[in-house]
Hints:
CATH superfamily: Glucose-6-phosphate isomerase like protein, domain 1
Strand content: 5-15%
CATH architecture: 3-Layer(aba) Sandwich
Number of domains: 1
Strand order of the largest sheet: 2-1-3-4-5
Largest sheet: 5 strands, parallel
Helix content: 40-55%
Distance between the termini: 49 Å
Radius of gyration: 19 Å
Number of helices: 10
CATH class: Alpha Beta
Shape: globular
Amino acid sequence: MLANQWKKNAIGVMDKIESTQMEQIKKVAGVMADCLQSGHLVHTFGCGHANLPIEEMYPRIGGFVGFHPLCELPLTFFTHIVGEMGINQFLWLERAEGYGKAIMSSWNFNKNDLLWIFSHTGINAVNIEVALEAQKRGMKVIAYGSAADTGNKTSRHSSGKNLFQVADYVVDSCCPLQDASVDLKNHQDKIGPLSTMAFVTTVWMTMCTVAEILADRGVHLYIHPSHNVPGDTTAHERLDACLAEYKRRVAGV
């Protein structure tokens, strides 16, 4: 069954992440832990389906305060597939040089913040430009994506560099560049993409490591609670504490 083939492919990617990327994930998690402990923010960015791991982080049950999503609506909104804000406009925008610079100009950043950016191929101009603009402001850039398969492939940015060549830290999502992974008879294109699953896997492997480091240091984390558990009478208070801490951290952004 093709369902089983996709599951096998997905588990293979997860296993490869664990066997090849854990040391780099630990290194990145240490950098993030230092950033959060010092009261700063990890800003997160992605286009299209690479925005999904950002939505998975915070606000989300089990997520914790310190991660700030930079969600540019025309690059993340897929409810309208055709018509206004359709796929054709999205594809044009993510390749348009100058858009990333405009996005970054709308925010205030501290040089001790971090930028965590997700891109499967790392070749589109907006991601590269957002990364370069972050570095101009003194921030370190962390990129997650199909780095090994992208290799030295030409970017769609005038710098000539792809995202993984620009970033200060890179974690490979271990996905094939084609993304879709399951052959379908009588069809040229495959089905069953893997990048979203891989991104979410690397997000939680990273964030669990960050949390472990900070807990070992005695740092209190503001963890987003579930408010659906019967008998938990303090969930709303803990949620209020999370939101208050989040407001405090993003006040200058």
